[in-house]
Automatic annotation (TrEMBL):
<dbReference type="GO" id="GO:0008270">
    <property type="term" value="F:zinc ion binding"/>
</dbReference>
<dbReference type="InterPro" id="IPR010841">
    <property type="entry name" value="EF-G-binding_N"/>
</dbReference>
<keyword id="KW-0479">Metal-binding</keyword>
<keyword id="KW-0862">Zinc</keyword>
<feature type="domain" description="Elongation factor G-binding protein C-terminal treble-clef zinc-finger">
    <location>
        <begin position="98"/>
        <end position="208"/>
    </location>
</feature>
<protein>
    <submittedName>
        <fullName>FBP C-terminal treble-clef zinc-finger</fullName>
    </submittedName>
</protein>
<feature type="domain" description="Elongation factor G-binding protein N-terminal">
    <location>
        <begin position="4"/>
        <end position="85"/>
    </location>
</feature>
<dbReference type="InterPro" id="IPR038344">
    <property type="entry name" value="EF-G_N_sf"/>
</dbReference>
<dbReference type="Pfam" id="PF16571">
    <property type="entry name" value="FBP_C"/>
</dbReference>
<keyword id="KW-0863">Zinc-finger</keyword>
<dbReference type="Pfam" id="PF07299">
    <property type="entry name" value="EF-G-binding_N"/>
</dbReference>
<dbReference type="InterPro" id="IPR032330">
    <property type="entry name" value="EF-G-binding_C"/>
</dbReference>
Length: 218
């Protein structure tokens, strides 16, 4: 069977099964475990608009009767997971053609990514590329120079950490102004380690909102 689970959907399933694992280990009441398991099953299935009977069978967690089985199930499920389409270096160079002396990341064709993100220390920017409705879009975000000890929340994955891990960035946005040189700047917090962020993100809604605003996509 072909892969049918998007990477962020798989992350959501992992999060749900982490909760199930906690219930198995901490709840002595079998009825509560059964009810919780049914609720988690519904949450998983509701992530998908359409599913075949075979796909529903793969997502069925009835066979998970104790926490020991969860890791094995997730390993099996990973074979049905897919990430964003492969990106060539040429496509990235074209996407960020306004960035001079851009250092491209090493592209791993086997990785399953929600989005491609990397830091170019030479230009002090975090760059993000994403497949939005079949089109490659991106944003180039300036890294902040502030140094505070406060905890920040990643806009994409909700991870909470210090500025060393979750920093404030500001991309330049295109506008609908008739002036071709008209731009505006916005800001948000994001994980500096995009690989780890890709393992945590459970929804692409905020990412797509930001990319649409940055690229003036209606």
């Amino acid at each position: 069977m072909e892969a049918f689970i998007k990477k962020h959907e798989f992350n959501y399933i992992c999060k749900c099964l982490f909760d199930l694992n906690s219930t198995f280990r901490n709840c002595p009441d079998p009825m509560i475990v059964t009810t919780t398991k049914a609720h988690i099953q519904n949450k998983i299935l509701n992530q998908f608009n359409t599913l075949t009977e075979d796909q529903k069978s793969i997502l069925n967690i009835d066979k998970l009767i104790d926490p020991i089985k969860i890791d094995g199930y997730l390993k099996e499920l990973d074979s049905y997971v897919y990430g964003m389409p492969k990106i060539s270096s040429a496509a990235l160079s074209k996407l960020f053609r306004k960035e001079k002396k851009l250092k491209l990341p090493k592209l791993n064709e086997d990785s399953k990514l929600v989005y491609l993100g990397w830091i170019d220390p030479g230009i002090k920017k975090l760059l993000i590329a994403y497949n939005l409705n079949g089109k490659l879009v991106g944003m180039s975000c300036r890294l902040s120079e502030t140094n505070t000890s406060t905890a920040n929340v990643c806009t994409l994955c909700n991870h909470v950490a210090s500025e060393n891990d979750v920093a404030f960035v500001s991309p330049i946005c295109k506008t609908s102004s008739s002036n071709s040189d008209a731009y505006k700047s916005i800001g948000f917090h994001i994980c500096l380690d995009s690989k780890k962020c890709n393992e945590r993100i459970t929804s692409t809604e905020k990412l797509e909102e930001l990319l649409k605003e940055v690229n003036n996509i209606k």
